[in-house]
Amino acid sequence: MMRWRISAWVAALVVLLLLAVPLYASLAPEPYALTFVSRVLVFALAAISLNLILGYGGMVSFGHALYMGLGAYAVGLLAQHGVTSGWVQLGVTVVVCALVGAVTGAISLRTTGVAFVMITLAFAQMFYYLFVSLKQYGGDDGLSISARSDFGIFTLASPIALYYTALALVLAALFVMKRLVDARFGMVLRGCRINERRMQAMGFPTLRYKLSAYVISSVLCGVAGLLYANLTGYTSPAYMAWTVSGELIVMVVLGGMGTVFGPLVGSLVLLISEEILKALTDRWMMILGPLIVLVVLTARRGVYGYLLDWDGYRERRRLLKDARSAEGRP
Amino acid sequence: MTAMLKINTLVKGYGGLLATDHVSLELAPGELHAIIGPNGAGKTTLIGQLGGEVAPDSGMIEFDGHDITSLAPARRALRGLARSYQITSVFPEFSVLENVCLAMQAHCGHSFGFWKPMLTQTELVEPALRAIGQAGLSYRATTPVSELAHGDRRQLELAMVLVAKPKLLLLDEPMAGMSHQESGKVVQLLQGLKGRYTMLLVEHDMDAVFALADRISVLVYGRIIASGTPQEIRANEDVRTAYLGDEVLPI
Amino acid sequence: MSFSLFCIQMLNGLQLGVLLFMLSAGLTLVLGIMNFVNLAHGSLYMMGAYFAAAAYARSDSFLIAALVGVVGSAALGFAVERIVAARLYARDHLDQVLATFGLILFFNELARTIWGATPYYMNVPQALSGTIDLLGVSYSTYRLAIIVVGLLVALGCYLLINKTKVGMLIRAGSSNPTIVAALGVNIKMLNAAIFALGAALAGLAGLMSGPILSVQPGMGEPMLITAMIVIIIGGIGSVRGAFYSALIVGVIDTAGRAFLPLLLREFLDRSTAQAAGPALASLLIFVFMAAVLALKPQGLFPVKNQ
Question: Hey, which chains touch B, using 3+ CB pairs under 8 Å?
């Protein structure tokens, strides 16, 4: 019998279901399912990017929504000026997010711990105010995007194209993360999270690796923002608000910090929970708030983290059983 | 023969207290030099300044002919100055092998590898397995460190320090918290390293110190009150006075 | 640009500064002593404003409203500390960030439920309405009152921290929390008291800013972020640092918003200056924070740690 790990089964099932969503949406018909799961995927991409620096690198950034906002505004501003080529918008997103990430990262990483949390929060807020003050681009009200990103062979105006693009990016990101965390770069990052002082004493110039991770994370999050603007047809300073940054952290922790698949699970669980709560009451944030507090107090490993733990436990029990039966004793 | 390590009138004060009071010391290559002293003598502060985590107020540290006084810890490590910690600072989430490979990785080029798993890189794994063997942990190579006993973790600390063949080992109480049997294994290990490695050993375990050291310096209230061969130290009156009630020197 | 305008803006900067100080003092104390990052501090500011506004509407006495606001936020702070915060002192900052984030969501929605989403307007108390003449400059009496109260609070904090036994414990706890616990002090009560004190100050800041800004859900967070900038610049755990940097940040922000657009109009054409002015002005304190960090990552008045 194939003794597969439960966590692997769950991951495979989730991916299979995700592949089938557009089919369900057109057959049911339930177009909202497509929009909703697209949103899950976009936020999953952002959460995956945050997981790199938070879950693996131990850098608690409370300003990561900034990069989603930058990606969204790249689309919005360029579209406003008639540039609808997805490739150009993507290029701008990558360059802008890399620059902003490099500069804010370099400043923020001069500090650690609480100061880092506060500084990342402050920088995100700074850009929030900046975009609010850009009255010619909608300011506080935001900017609507009439023309979606055109990538030549496909355009994100089609909900199905958007969905599969998002899914492809999520799967690609998950695959890259899986390789990265066991490679040299990933091991250094993980080591920095556990004991940075020791890493330095061993000879690692830790700053360059943390900063690199931060920049990679910013760029990936920016791409999520690009998709998000296409999904909603809209961009606004609210996309980079501190509340969104907080939600991203919740997704990472809820799904399973420092696991590859966790962020996708986290996005799924959080957004589904929000939908359920919204259906129950208008005051759903009054329930979500304490729920988050409860999760923090009790369930730190996250959904996927617990699945992995359970697999580890089952594996050890199996090894013990095998050892006992090899000895010929009950 | 130039000294491997030269400390010249090092001073470090905290508030009104001098934790390091004009300390001068020289280590010849291959020498095992032990620093002993009562609690609060400033041994950890001294090691901290040698490792680079604590900046001295004045004085100079010369390592292998170069002035490293203002060099960051990572740069010192890359020059061959390896440090082990009094409070075990290994990586509990990783396996023994991963810990030692990581220690090797710092000396093996850059770490901007995003694809190839660390554990498949022979330039890391081979030296790691050798160091693990030296430390007597071969049978536990794939065990997560969180499952290791205290004594084995201290062995791991040593393996991590040795893997990149450093020029100087700073050993901060390697036998802390060990049983008699466990510290015996460490003493054996260090004996095997004598001559090939230069070692500065801070320890409380007097049996180990007198068994291993070529020379001993005694640190009291931040000052070195005596420095010499084990026999000289044993016979030294000031040393006996300083230790009265604290430790008993083996006769 | 007239002398009168300059003076008014400087005074406004001072007024914002003392409000920021009151908000930051509690935040930096709790951070420095209990190593607890309390994002919900802005919610305490907001709730203080709401308690006072509700009491003011009912009693028509600003004094009673202020009392209700301060006592209410102190009590709320005490409750938050006992129920949530105390369980998280030993945990890492990520847990604290998440938990207090959850609290923010809860309190904002609570305020929306009880008092509605539309801003609640508080009138300036009759006794303090109008203007007062300061050296030929006509300044709002109420704002001057804020400055006076703020400076008195700062003086009170100075006396408390430097001249009392409790203050000594606070200073000791700031640089070495474990020793204070080892001294046999009832650390639980001390922590709760410090937290409640910080909450009271936050509530006071909230209720005083009520008549100037408006009382609405979510009013706490922008101020909280500015307060964070203040304590980063001042040095975490340092109340003295919070005081000076609060005043500096208050003046930079106010003067920047008032004068930068005017300055830009000298160099750029009207429409660009019109657009760029407010945008750049809102960035000033962040740029200042970045500059301070580049030179002194520990802040301008760091608490020395052993």
Answer: A
Specify if A305 maps to a domain: no
Q: Residue C306: pLDDT band by 50, 70, 90 thresholds?
A: very low
Whole domain around residue A55: which residue ranges? 16-242
- Quick check: is A173 in a domain? yes
Question: Of B107, B138, B165, which residue sits at a domain end?
Answer: B165
- From A284's Cα to the closest Cα of chain C, the distance in A is 8
Residue at a domain's end among B125, B144, B165: B165
The span from the CA of C152 to the CA of C275, in Å, is 39
Contact A244, A274 (CB under 8 A): no
Comparison of pLDDT for B240 and B225, the residue scoring more:
B225
DSSP-derived 3-state class of residue C117: coil
**Reduced 3-state DSSP string for B78-110:** HCCEEEECCCCCCCCCCEHHHHHHHHHHCCCCC
pLDDT, tens digit, 9 for 90 and up, residues A69-83: 999 999 999 999 988
Domain match, B55 and B178 both:
yes
Q: Is residue A202 part of a domain?
A: yes
Q: Which structural domain range is residue B98 located in?
A: 88-165
* Rounded-to-5 percentages of helix, strand, coil across chain B: 35, 25, 35
Nearest-by-Cβ selection for A293 from C84, C222, C278: C84
Residues of A in contact with B164 (CB under 8 A): 203
Write out pLDDT tens, residues A145-204. Answer: 988 888 888 888 899 999 999 999 999 999 999 999 999 999 999 999 999 999 999 999
Bridge partner list, B197: B194
Helices (H), chain C: 3-34, 41-59, 62-83, 93-115, 141-163, 165-175, 177-182, 187-209, 220-234, 239-267, 270-295
Chain A residues within 8 angstroms (CB to CB) of chain B: 176, 179-180, 182-188, 190-191, 194-195, 197-206, 209, 212
Helix/strand/coil for C299: coil
* Closest CA relative to residue B31, chosen from B231, B165, B185, B216: B216
The total number of structural domains that make up chain A: 1
Tokens 């700053």 belong to residue: A207
Alpha-carbon span C37 to C33, nearest angstrom: 11
Query: Comparing C-alpha atoms, which of B152, B159, B148 is closest to residue B190?
Result: B159
CATH label, C3-295, candidates 1.10.3470, 3.90.1200, 1.10.10, 3.30.70: 1.10.3470
Residue B250 and residue B126 share a domain: no
HSE of C226, CA atoms in CB hemisphere, 13 A = 28
CB within 8 Å of B46: residues ≥ 6 apart: B10, B20, B23, B35, B202, B219
- Taking CB atoms and an 8 Å cutoff, what residues of chain C touch A126? 282-283, 286
What residues 269-288 of chain C have any CB closer than 8 A to a CB of chain A? 275, 278-279, 282-283, 286
Mean pLDDT of C250-269: 85
Compute CA B93 distance to the chain's CA centroid, rounded to the nearest angstrom: 23
Locate the chain A residue with the closest alpha carbon to C114.
Answer: A283
Q: For B98-146, what is each residue's pLDDT tens digit?
A: 999 999 999 999 999 999 999 999 999 999 999 999 888 999 898 899 9
Residues B1 and B75 in one domain: yes
Both B75 and B93 in one domain: the answer is no
Strand partners, A144: A234
A270 assigned to some structural domain: no
Tokens, residue A6: 């439960």
Residue of B nearest to A180 (CA): B114
Domain count, chain B: 2
